[in-house]
Amino acid sequence: MRTSLEVQTRKVNVTQVILDWPDGNNPKRFNHEYYYAYWRGKTPAGQDYFSGTLKSVGFHDTVLFASMNHSNMLQFSDLLIGATRDFLSCELEDREYAIGKELTEIVFKKFRGFPNNINYGLSISSGNQILKDRIQELMKKYTK
After folding, report:
1. Which of 2, 3, 53, 72 is the most exposed place for a label (fewest CB within 10 A)?
2. CA pair distance 94, 96, nearest whole angstrom
3. In whole angstroms, what is the distance from residue 102 CA to residue 104 CA?
4. 9-45 pLDDT, tens per residue?
5. Per residue, what are the HEC states of 56-71?
């Protein structure tokens, strides 16, 4: 859903989704989810995509799978996600150093919304509003 909004914002003509090969070698749930998003613009549970159907914003009709071991882009994405998690953990625990913190500080300028608001794209699954508020304050410290 977030990727489709990003694609709409950037006016990309064609977008191909490539996922890491799923555990248990069963891509069925990902294919099912993608089918609904592509053709119906909804999740299987019925939640609408803000962008509409993936088809209407230029997504390829098929999701692809690759092995993390063989895909530089999947490896790089995994590295950035892990570094960002390490950065947040380090900051929330008041630790001074973590390799992920150092890397994240280097790539902050590439985060969507930098320097004004880089909260877009950070998905905090916890229902803990205090945690969400702390992360928002933390991000303000690094973007202002």
Report:
1. 72
2. 6
3. 6
4. 787 788 999 999 988 899 999 999 999 999 999 999 9
5. HHCECCCCEEECHHHC
Q: Which two tokens stand for residue 53?
A: 């159907």
| Range with the poorest average pLDDT among 55-69, 88-102, 120-134 | 120-134
With CA atoms as reference, report the closest residue to 24 among 62, 65, 76: 65
Q: Are the CB atoms for 51 and 5 separated by under 8 Å?
A: yes
SS3 of residue 55 by DSSP? helix
Helix (H) or strand (E) holding 10: helix 2-10
- Lookup: tokens for 77: 């994405």
Q: What are the structural domain ranges in the chain? A: 2-66, 72-143
CA distances (Å), origin 66, targets 32, 40, 73, 83: 17, 25, 10, 22
Confidence at residue 1, expressed as pLDDT on a 0 to 100 scale: 76
